[in-house]
Specification:
Length: 482
């Protein structure tokens, strides 16, 4: 009994948003919160509904209780532990009231966040000009006032201003969090495919598809909201309306580098320590960046790493079997299309519409397209895998010509993919809306229907994935730059 209570205590500590806020403060991130606006809060009991958690997540992850004029020691304050719920803490309430009194006479240069754009979140007191130096331990720190780079993908909320006192860490963790975003995927996988090893790339995409799919579905089943803000500073806003547990950035940041290391060690000549160190650094930068950005609790990130590791234990030994089936089985195209489509339909039934639904369909579409292209390449004798006698590969010496050719392939290929996506998007959305009878005057609203979003994402990114492994390499061979 004592051991279980100790585990619960550790569990709550790792989920506490104040732990995230303290880490952000240590890294030089400061919020511009001044005082809170009364608003509705999710239920403070463990049986809160998913809809309440969804609303709580839309409100920048913050819970608010009305602060009345009664006994100050009984005023409510937000802690946000235990699935984003609110706890009553007198000390935290007193600290926030004191901060509000101290800031009462300060000029409020930032825009007031209303219920329309932040669901009753804190007032922003940011500065539009240069910030004054702050003193810390006898040193003068120059802060930069910034806002999140991208708006919330669902609500359009731009977030609040925040202060950055350590620019190196800000740029490092911004880079780290981009290693789990779409721009990275649309450049990294094709680069490996076209310039390094197509065999490794197509298998790496298989791993990525399964890890991300299972991670997104688990998020919807658990339904925990993001860390509460305040106290957490939302350095990123784009994914703030999605659920939190587990961190899919941490999952992909674990699966991709360590799978790449697993698949290439022995196939390419390099030292074990170099490959493992590279994978570990990649994983650490991505995982820590999610806490720095205020998007995940420490518990979310740890769970993401462990969950991804568990998936890898099952999928990596099965890659030969799956890849062989995709290449040689005559029924592979039918199985590939129906399996990925069925997985998409299942994921859309787990929760109400959100941007994560589209991301899941997008990932499945890419996986289906790449698997189909590998089957077609095998039938046509294109891009044959190297024989065991040709292994291991030795990395060629780096030269201007080699780097230039790699960049040429990458730029040309990505342009083809972007053109494919634009053309398919222009064709697919009106076509699907017409077939399903959904009005397409407002594309954003039309895509909130499962019968539009799932086929749109699946078809568009299925074609993109097919072109990554079939059309673009075929063009390179025709232009003699493969």
């Amino acid at each position: 009994m004592e051991r279980s209570s100790r585990l619960v205590e550790i569990f709550n500590y790792l989920q506490d948003p104040h732990l995230v806020a303290r880490f952000q403060k240590f890294c030089g991130v400061r919020g511009t919160f001044s005082r809170t606006v009364s608003g509705s809060a999710p239920s403070s009991t463990g049986g809160g509904s998913k809809e309440a958690d969804r609303t709580h997540s839309h409100n920048n992850g913050a819970c608010h209780h009305p602060i009345t004029g009664g006994n100050e020691s009984e005023s409510a304050a937000v802690i946000g532990a235990d699935e984003g719920e609110c706890k009553q803490t007198a000390a935290a309430g007193a600290r926030r009231r004191k901060q509000g009194e101290e800031n009462e006479n300060l000029p409020q240069n930032g825009a007031v966040v209303t219920a329309a754009n932040a669901g009753g979140d804190a007032l922003g007191a940011g500065s539009n000009g240069p910030t004054e130096p702050a003193e810390k331990g006898g040193e003068v720190l120059v802060s930069s006032t910034l806002k999140p780079l991208r708006k919330n993908s669902l609500t359009g909320d731009a977030g609040q201003e925040f202060l950055i006192e350590n620019r190196f860490l800000f740029y490092l963790f911004t880079f780290g969090t981009e290693l789990g975003n779409e721009l990275f995927y649309i450049t990294f996988f094709p680069f490996v495919m076209w310039n390094m090893d197509a065999f490794v790339a197509r298998r790496l995409i298989m791993v990525w598809v399964w890890v991300m799919y299972l991670g997104q579905c688990t998020k919807d089943v658990i339904g925990w909201s993001r860390p509460a803000s305040p106290p957490v500073v939302k350095v990123e806003m784009f994914y703030n309306s999605e659920y939190s547990m587990p961190s899919t950035h941490a999952m992909s940041g674990t699966a991709i580098p360590f799978s790449l290391f697993f698949m290439t060690y022995g196939r390419w000549e390099y030292s074990f320590s170099l490959g493992f160190s590279f994978a570990l650094c990649w994983c650490l930068v991505v995982c820590v960046s999610r806490i720095y950005m205020g998007m995940h609790s420490v518990l979310d990130v740890i769970a993401g790493v462990l969950y991804s590791s568990l998936i890898l234990l099952f999928i990596l030994p099965a890659l030969d079997l799956i890849d062989g089936f995709n290449l040689t089985c005559r029924y592979a195209p039918l199985v590939i299309i129906s399996l990925h489509l069925g997985l998409g339909l299942f994921s859309f039934t787990l929760d109400t519409w959100s941007t994560s639904r589209g991301d899941t369909a997008q990932i499945l579409g890419v996986g289906a397209g790449v698997a189909l292209a590998s089957h077609v390449n095998h039938l046509l004798g294109l891009m044959p895998d190297p024989t065991p006698e040709q292994l291991p590969f030795t990395a060629p010496p780096l030269s201007a010509g080699l780097a230039g050719m790699a960049m040429l392939r990458l730029v040309m290929g990505v342009l083809v993919l972007m053109t494919t996506r634009a053309v398919m998007k222009a064709i697919t959305i009106p076509l699907v809306c017409r077939v399903t009878g959904v009005p397409c005057d407002d594309v954003r609203k039309a895509r909130q229907h499962m019968e539009v979003e799932l086929p749109y994402r699946y078809i568009v990114y299925g074609v993109v994935g097919f072109n990554v492994l079939f059309l673009v390499p075929f063009l390179f061979s025709c232009l003699q730059i493969s």
